[in-house]
Amino acid sequence: VAKDLALDLPAFHTRGVRILDRGKTQYFALQEKTGHLVTAERIDREQLCESVQQCVLRCEVIVEGEM
């Protein structure tokens, strides 16, 4: 995420970058040391999308300040 947003790691921390999931379970997290997007919880496709052919989990990356 840091690389995709063209932010170096010090700026990544000071800009207040965070992940926002819409559900009650937060499946994704940002690693503070690397700026990588990782899974924060186990993702069970059969439980989440049992009757859907294509399973999509959406989340937003929030960056405070101007880009």
Automatic annotation (TrEMBL):
The keyword tRNA processing does not apply. GO terms for cellular component: membrane. Keywords: Glycoprotein, Membrane. The keyword Membrane applies. It comes from the Eukaryota. Its main location: membrane. GO terms for molecular function: calcium ion binding. InterPro entries: Cadherin-like_sf (IPR015919), Cadherin_N (IPR013164). It is found in: Membrane. Residues 1-64 form the Cadherin N-terminal domain. This is PCDGB protein. It comes from Glareola pratincola.
